[in-house]
Amino acid sequence: MLALPPAPAPAPRRQLFVGTALACSAGTMLIGGMLAIWLRFRKAAMTGTSHLWVPKGISFPEVASNIMLFSFIGICIFAQWAVYAAKRDDKRHVGVALLLTGLLGLAVINAQAAVYAQMSLPIHPKDGTSAYGVMFYAITGTFVVFMIIGVVFSFVTAFRYLGGRTREREIVTAHAIYWYFAAAAFTMLWFVVYVTK
Amino acid sequence: MTTIETAPHSTSATSTAGASHAISMVGAWITTSDHKRLGRMLIGCGLIALLGIAAVGGLLGLERIDVNSTTLGSGSIDQLFSLFRVGLAFFAVLPVMLGLGVAVVPLQLGARALAFPRLAAAGFWAWFFGMALVVLSIVANGGPGGGTSKYVALYISAFAVMLGGLTIIAISLATTVLTTRAPGMNMRRVPTFAWSVLVSSLGLIIVLPVVIGASIYLYVSYRYNRVPFGGNQGILDWTGFSMTQPQTFLYVLPAVGFFAEVIPVASRRRMPMRGVVLAGLAMVGVAAITGASQLPHLLPWRGSKLYLGHFSTKLGDLISYSLFNIVPVLGVVIVVLLAPLAFAAKKGQRVAPKITAPFIFGFFGVTMLLVGMVASVLDGVIDLGLQGTVYEEGTYTYVCYGAILAALGAVTYWGPKLWGRRLSDKKVMPLALLGVLAVVLSSLPYLIAGFADQPAGAITFSYGGPHALWNTLATIGHFLMVLTVLGYVGLALQGFRTGELAGDDPWDAHTLEWATSSPAPVNNFVGLHTVMSPQPLLDLKPSPDAPKTETA
Questions:
Q1: Any chain A CB within 8 A of the CB of B207?
Q2: Which ipTM score applies to this complex?
Q3: Which of A31, B16, B289, B392 is the most exposed place for a label (fewest CB within 10 A)?
């Protein structure tokens, strides 16, 4: 075996941070790709070359959808607060910030459920031609999955950090990155699905 | 009273111990997160899947020899075409390429493990069970064009799960290259194979989620409202872009990276213009943009009507066509063209090149792959009328089978690091020649038949050319591919178990994986190494290239 000179201990390379960033890139492409297909169908419907778009009699619960958007401002602030507190080894503040992030995430999921309930959008309309119901439930459902992952991420981070692994600050940073991604993804989705419809 | 205990029968004890050992071995492999085992599982499953897929390709060729009779049920033809198309890319080529990356990249980087090894293991199992369910659904009359609705729905969801698994593995690989390099190994010093795996993985992270997104729409649409996305007939319309060129270039890129890795080892000197090689490999990554846009970039040339009124449109078409179709091909051309430079002797230096089985496999594999890539560039020229013909199948087969051929070379090359033994060059090299014959026969006839307008995905057609000849040759080619892979797997099973002990550095190689023992221990390296150049081992060997330490 050839002998190479021994090396010093490697510098930390922020593996969890990079991995989360790459996973968020994949998530962005997933939502971005779905929004692109959404816009393609919408354009076809608007120019009259395809099926109907929003079924008649459907109203959009703007309060709930806007509250979801504003919730993400809070989520981002709380996630960054956790990073700030972790850098200062302030365990109590980290815990509060992470729990608030998770709770707000749950609130967003709840708001999405309220949107479903208020819209009463049929997934299979009577005339059977509109793609809107299918696409609405597919894209918002995918986003709910992202929200569930985020809430689990928040609680796992809190569990690990409050459990005593206070030196593992990287997970708190990675957690914040994930919520920034979720906020950006929802902003795109909110504009396309709830504003331009 | 004396109590005499009956001694257990020695044979049954041995068999019980043997059985428990076997169970624990199987358990260890199933629950493993060791990158070398995971990589081998991906490669092994991919090659076994390839045997089936190549046989399906042969059956489809057989079916097309006589256009007036059908041996297989007419209802199953669509499913078999789908199985061949989906299977070649996602059951065989991509898993084998990612498997090579999983097994080798951490060793090349001087890392002790893969980043997120348990996640990568989860990705493997998601791919494996997704693949099994895709096959099951197609067999049960599901899949694109299938008639049993619950199995069509199962196909769509299993397809998404399978791609999800592959995406997870790509994330793990990209993170490994970006974060677990040995001290001193900056991105310019990363081995070419690891670099190609990084470019390919980043491309997959961009593209595969887009296919998954389309699959989610397809699934919900199929379950509740079949009109908008075309029902069972629309599946390939919405996901087919992931199984055509230039998308497939991303999948096969590690094969080119492997060839770039063995060129300097075979020529026994440093790779000239290494930065250009890295740039060439990165250029193939452009294919990811085509996938993300979900559109083929075609060239509607419309004959010779090149006048000023249409000039800007033609120029726009030409630019987008060149960027997305020609640039990736150019990247591979650059890598291949640099090979002769590596073999060209410098003044006053005479070093005999060392042509080994991995180099031969790599050379033929990448040459075949390149022929497929160049041919696929023509497919985008609308005036040639090749779209919708078997020409596309021919280029697809050229690219995928070529990559598999190079992958067999990669397994031969890195086998000693995974099993501790090496395959006999004399036994393996004839398989490379058989493989070339298989690739040419299975692909080239379809390129010719494509010009004669033989339609893709159809078994009944008519045209003036000798269609029976082309389809017979293609059938022989597919079955020769089965024979090549079968022969290789047989040799590997024997050679890697009982073959010649390899030693730590059997190829006189340049990169870090050869600095550890063969087979590599659990954590790969006993100590960490400081890397001073892209060829850390060559720096320690007497070389005609007079090792020079590169400044970072």
A1: yes
A2: 0.91
A3: B16
